[in-house]
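Tutorial handout. Part one gives the primary structure; part two gives the three-dimensional structure as tokens.
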Amino acid sequence: MVDSEEGNYLSRDLTEIPEDVFERCNMISLYLDFNNIEILQEDISRFQSLRCLSIIGNSLKTLPNSLGDVVNLEELYLNDNCLTSLPDSICKLKKLRKIWLTGNQLEALPEEFGEVSSLQILICDENNIHKLPKTFGLLENLKELEFSNNAIETLLEGFGMLKSLQVLNLSNNKLEILPDSFGSMANLKVIDMSSNNLKALPCKFQSAHCIEKLYCESNLLQDLPDWVSHMTNIVEFSVKDNQFQNQALPDELPKVCSRLKHLDMSGNFMSKLPENLGALEKLEFLHLGSVIGELERRNFQNGNWLPMIPDSICDLQNLRELHVDENQIRDLPDNFGNLISLETLDLGNLFVYVHKVGVTCKK
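Part two.
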């Protein structure tokens, strides 16, 4: 028997909401996932008690304007449909806290979307959105924002008003520059800006002390700003496949970022590392080599240009995985055998004779 407060109509080959469902207007949750629903009836407004509506994996192309009349709605799941737009009335849902829109064909959000003032989680990856509405910065309660795999080219200055944001994923878009206000967000913990066209990160960043995971892979970065040496809580940091040269990592970083476990700077043009790299005592993963597979990289250089590894690397007692393939290294530090936790070592395409650990690798 279906609970009077929950309507569970999953995988029933429905093409629309059955009429008898509308007789249960007291429902708090309604699940219509994995059916063949193409149209959501205007009568959806009758569910004045509804707090959670899930229509995942259907064939919805549009939503009725009456959806904005379901005034108590708090969670809305519309993943994997065929939506090209959202009705303006969705901006009337003042209690909406979570909305999932992954895997649709959305090109934009309503211009007044910032009026959904209670929104805390917005998941909108795998769509075709080119820009965000001007009111977007009004979402001051937003904590998690996922916009990966879209076509966003610019962020307006108001984006920095998202003062509660903790998780931000803008990977796989077309961003070339970040607004100055981006550095004003003070509570970010997880940031993924990978696979864009960014040439620089903000000069100042109020979230530096909060960041736990930062991914800026596959961009056009040439330098790291000073604030990366203020990331006292960073655990994972990946800036592989950029255009860093010389010594990209500041000398201060190993001493300050003492919680760092994962560092990936592969596929750049660096020729030097900080001498005190061994101060990263919790480091478990270090990649300084190639970003492509071994079979693909045989005919060209794709790592860094490091002629040596600093002796202090031998102090990394927790290091489990080390990649220094595709560099100019001809010898390893005398105490390399002190890396007692090392399980994976990639010395591919080097000319190295390491008698201390019994390894011979020739380019």
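Part three, for discussion. The first strand starts at residue 6 and ends at 8. The chain has one helix and 19 strands.
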